[in-house]
Amino acid sequence: MARSLYIHIPFCSYICYYCDFNKFFIENQPVDAYIDALEQELTWRFAGETAPLETIYIGGGTPSAVTTAQLGRILQAVHVKTPGVSPGAEFTVEMNPDDADDDKLHTLFNHGVNRLSIGVQTFDDKLIQKIGRGHTASDAKNAVHRAKAFNFSNISIDLMLGLPEQTMSSWHDTLQTAAALDVSHISAYALKIEEKTRFYNWWRAGKLPTVTEDEAADMYEAMERVLADAGFHQYEISNFAKDGQASRHNQVYWHNESYVAAGAGAHGYLQGARYENIQPVPHYISAIENGELPERQRHQLSRREQMEEEMFLGLRMNEGMPLVRFEQKYGETVADAFPGALEELTAKGWLTVENGWVALTEEGRLLGNEVFVRFLENENKF
Ligand code: SF4
Fold first, then answer.
1. Residue of the nearest CA to atom 4 in ligand 1?
2. Is 12 in the pocket of ligand 1 (CB under 6 A)?
3. Whose CA is nearest to atom 2 of ligand 1?
4. For residue 343, is it left (φ>0), alpha (ψ between -120 and 50) or beta?
5. Which domains, and CATH codes, for the chain?
6. What averages of pLDDT result for each successive group of 10 residues across the chain (382 residues)?
7. Which residues, 6 or more positions from 256, have their beta carbon under 8 angstroms from its beta carbon?
8. Rg for the chain (alpha carbons), in Å?
């Protein structure tokens, strides 16, 4: 059974213009009934299990958008509706800067949360408004300072690059401000225009002033330089950490290991099967009230699909993946499973194969999906 747990809290105090996550404006939402259902799902998912959890990640949505009492209930459920939290476990909760008040920080700390992931996106106040977020740059800085005052030593912040009208100078300032806050971890994602977002509608109407691919690539390279100078190691395409502070939970995903997921729209991976929970909150709650696991779909991966995922998830890590791990898991070598792929991609300068490890090169990291597609036979999978 998995020793990692993801919990999805699909409520937000504002809806950002770029976001296509499963989330709902919190006003008038049945948050307490949702937590009742979540407790029941955790009870079912962990029935008969005894091994305590090693990594927990509560994300969303915005877990910090609920009241302090509701947050306490969710955290308590992690302790009592599962086999418990292992001493030394990594326990992360996502929080928005404007929610980082003393009561919530106190509740998080008292329930054993030892890692905060703060959604900052940019320290440029004009851009923050233009992407529809409800805080300021000053809120974001204060959130980090307050979290430190509550003895959170492992703090991650999320940033976004390639935002509409984002200039290199604004991005540079954001990176410098992030580095100066002396956090332990930074995740930085390039904007993707997703359907069912305001940005998508504006983009379709020709009203979204997007940055070019070249500009976004320059921002990515600037990020690698600035964060390296500030003492961060890049350990994954979009993730940077100080020594020993890489996210253990996310590495479970990239190592293609099992994890339980609970909550509306959450995605889990157990015994070679990927499952996705029902997204709408009322349907999620009613499925559980009717005594059913709230799954929308489940797909048992074939051995071939597992091998493909092993490759494109493992290659996201800067260190790459050990070839021997693949062979031990699947009983054949990468070279046999994907004939010609390693030679072809190394000849293009996108991969290196050295000392038993295969990894993306700098150029390969910039291309990402173009490299991964070489390991996919059939992209049209759940
Ligand atoms: S980015 Fe975060 S806060 Fe904004 S709508 Fe999406 S989940 Fe909510």
1. 16
2. yes
3. 61
4. alpha
5. 4-254 (3.80.30.20), 315-375 (1.10.10.920)
6. 95 97 97 98 97 98 98 98 98 97 98 98 98 97 98 97 97 98 97 96 96 95 97 96 97 96 98 97 98 98 95 94 96 95 96 96 88 76 41
7. 306, 309, 310, 313, 314
8. 21
